[in-house]
Predict the structure.
Amino acid sequence: AQSVTQLGSHVSVSEGALVLLRCNYSSSVPPYLFWYVQYPNQGLQLLLKYTSAATLVKGINGFEAEFKKSETSFHLTKPSAHMSDAAEYFCAVSDRGNQFYFGTGTSLTVIP
Amino acid sequence: DADVTQTPRNRITKTGKRIMLECSQTKGHDRMYWYRQDPGLGLRLIYYSFDVKDINKGEISDGYSVSRQAQAKFSLSLESAIPNQTALYFCATSEDSDSNQPQHFGDGTRLSIL
C-alpha cells in the first residue's frame, strides 16, 4: 500500500529564509512522487515531480526536492522564501497503476 | 479558458437533497478523478474513471455516485446529501499512460450541506 506523511501541518518562515517542507512516503514499488501547491480558492498546481531519473528535481518558482530512497523522503525546499509562496503544499505518491495518494498538506506562512 | 472546469463553484443546500457536481475538461485526457478535501485530511479519492466504460470506487465512495457521460465529462452525485459531506470537491484529469504523469485539477466546488 502507498501512503504519504507530511510532517508539520503549519510552517512559518521569514521572508528570505529557507523553506523546508517534509514528506515521507511508503510504497511497495519504486514510486513516482509529486509536489503540488494550492493557492486560496484554486485547485492544485504541479510544482515538480520525481520519476526515477535525477534524484534532485527542480520545479517552478525556485522550488526543488530531493528523492532519498534510504530515508523514503522527498522533502521540498526553496533557498529564499517570498511572500507569494504562502500557500498550501501537498506531497503525493503514485502507485504506477491507478491512483494517487496525497499527504494531509502543509500550510506555509511567510512573515514579512 | 480553464482546462478543467467545475460547476458550480459554490453550492449551499439542505440535508436530503440530491446534488450533482459537474466536471468537464478540454485536455483530451482519458482519466478523470473526483476528490474531496477536508481540513487536516488532505485529498481523498471518491471515484475514478479511466475511460467512458470504466468506473472505479476510491477510498470514500459511500454516499456518492458518478457518471462518465463522455471522455470530457465526469459528474459526481450525492443522492441524499448529509452534513458530513460538506467539503471542497475537486475534479482532476491525467493522461492515459504510466502514472508518472501528474494530475490536472479544476478550481473546486465548495459544497455546504445544512
